[in-house]
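Example record used in the benchmark description.
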Amino acid sequence: MNLVVIEGFLARPAQHVELPSGTRLVTLEVTVRRPDGPAEPVPVTWTDPPAWASILDTGAEVVVLGRVRRRFFRASGATQSRTEVVAHRVVRSTARAKVSALVTEAVDSLEQLGE
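Model output (structure tokens):
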């Protein structure tokens, strides 16, 4: 199973892109604090987010439920890769009920593995 839950703050405002297919994409850079070391930036992509995603700004605290993806692409004549989190859900850390529902969804997914 490929499942990730991260909590952190945005290092920069949400960036919006519309793909040629018409799909809307938001990219986030979520900085995750570690208790035993430096903070780590985690790139997140979110497909067809709700309208409120457009107001996410630097410093906004969020919780992300998604999966890890490594994609390959060509740039400057060389093959490069990027590892990122593909968001299924993003909620503000301050929305406790939504955070609780997100964590419950993640736990339910994990429990299905044991069945």
